Amino acid sequence: MCASCAWSSARGWRKSDGGAPAHAFAFERIAACWPDARFVFLLRHPASIAISWHEASPDKRTPAEAAADALRYMKATERARKAPPGVTVRMRT
Fold first, then answer.
1. Residues forming a β-bridge with 41
2. 62 vs 7, 20, 45, 67, 79, CA distance in Å?
3. Which one of 7, 8, 36, 57 has the minimum C-beta count within 10 Å?
4. Beta strands in 19-61 (DSSP E)
5. Beta bridge partners of residue 65, listed in sequence order
6. What is residue 51's predicted lDDT score, i.e. its pLDDT?
7. Which of 72, 81, 69 is nearest to 43 (CA)?
8. Superkingdom of this entry's organism (predicted)?
9. What is the pLDDT of residue 24?
10. Residue 49 class from Cβ within 10 Å (0-12 exposed, 13-18 middle, 19+ buried)?
């Protein structure tokens, strides 16, 4: 069992905290820790993601850097969508 899963289990957590973008990179660990997990993939328009990330921290990343970050997360989400079964929800923002 991975360390974060052991910590979550020790605290009695039974479900994810929701739409954390980093979960796209950790779907294999999440599925290994909770084999009965059900996945919901939330998709948002790429431009909307990049704009939101840039506006949240304009001193942290330029619009181009926000777009590159958004692309990394979108690619990870697409990889995750191909592995465990799940439901896809397209957000309109």
1. 88
2. 35, 21, 19, 9, 26
3. 36
4. 39-43
5. none
6. 94
7. 81
8. Bacteria
9. 86
10. buried
Model pTM greater than 0.85?
no
The residue type of 36 is D
Which two tokens mark 89?
A: 């929800």
Output Rg (C-alpha) for the chain, integer angstroms: 15
Q: For tokens 């690619």, what's the residue? A: 75
Nearest to 8 by CA among 33, 31, 27: 33
Number of domains forming the structure of the chain: 1
Q: What is the pLDDT of residues 35-77, one digit of tens each?
A: 888 888 888 898 998 999 899 999 999 999 999 999 999 999 9
In the chain, beta strands by DSSP E: 39-43, 86-90
